[in-house]
Structure formats: C-alpha cells, structure tokens
Amino acid sequence: MKKELKLPKPVETYIRAINARDTDAFQSSFAPDAVVKDVGREFCGIVEIKEWASQEIFAVHVTLEVMDVTERDGQTIVTVKIDGTFDRTGLPDPLLMNHCFTVADDKISALTCRLAGEEAKR
After folding, report:
1. What is the 3-state secondary structure of the chain?
2. How far is the CA of 20 from the CAs of 33, 81, 99, in angstroms?
3. Phi–psi pair at 120, nearest 5 degrees
4. Which of 3, 39, 74, 87 is the most buried (most CB within 10 A)?
5. Which neighbouring-strand residues pair with 80?
6. Antiparallel, parallel or unpaired: β 95-104 and 107-115
C-alpha cells in the first residue's frame, strides 16, 4: 500500500495548478519575492517566475506525477515524473526531477529544480 504523501498547501497548489494549466493558481502559490532555480538558471520575483513558467511549463503542457515526498533541512523535496510536449533530447526516460521547496508564510519562497539524484553529486 502506498503511503499518503502530505504536501504543504502552496506545494500542493503548485502541482495541481501545473496539471490543470491554471496560471493564476500557479502564480498564487509563490511569494512576491520568491526565487526559482531551474537546472542552473535563476528567476527572481513573481514576474520572472511567471515568464519562466509560461515558456517552460505551460507552453509545453508539462504534467507532474508525484512519486515521493521527503522533508529535509526545512525543505519539502518532491520527486516528480515529468511529461509534456518539450524536447526530450538528452533527457532520461522517465524524466524524474526533484523539486526542493522552501515555504514561508504559506507561500513558496524558494524552489530548486534538478534531475533526481543530482544533489548527491554536489
């Protein structure tokens, strides 16, 4: 039997918003001064995050399937299987990524996205 995966509310909103293609709900899950680090690139503030999501998530119909959730060092780390219409050249199949969330005041204040297993290589 699969364990129940408990997500902080803004993280749950983030995942549901992506899967429902709800850009307003997506944006509402972030603090105004949040920072997103996505595979070596950094996006600061809600305007840059919205632009990133528009191109990298919503334009290519990304969906996220939650595979695992862990809490470590004040972060919620969600391992997701990613699907969508993006270019898969050079990407593993299945594409598993860790989304490392820092939540403050019921909003995502920081998010780091990396291929699953990469934090061990730091």
Report:
1. CCCCCCCCHHHHHHHHHHHHCCHHHHHHCEEEEEEEEECCEEEEHHHHHHHHHHHHHHCCCCEEEEEEEEEECCEEEEEEEEECCCCCCCCCCCEEEEEEEEEECCEEEEEEEEECCHHHHC
2. 24, 16, 18
3. -70, -20
4. 39
5. 66, 97
6. antiparallel
Cis peptide before 8 (omega within 30 of 0): no
Q: Is 30:46 a contact under the CB 8 Å cutoff?
A: yes
The rounded distance, in Å, linking the Cα atoms of 7 and 9 is 6
Structure tokens at 110: 């920081």
Residue numbers in the chain where pLDDT is lower than 70: 1-5, 118-122
Q: How many CA atoms lie within 13 A of 81 on its CB side?
A: 6
pTM metric for this prediction: 0.91
Instruction: Look up residue 55 and give its two tokens.
Output: 């191109």
What six digits make up the tokens of 73? 């060092």
| Phi-psi category of residue 73: left, alpha or beta, with phi > 0 → left and psi -120 to 50 → alpha | left
How high is the pLDDT of residue 5?
A: 63
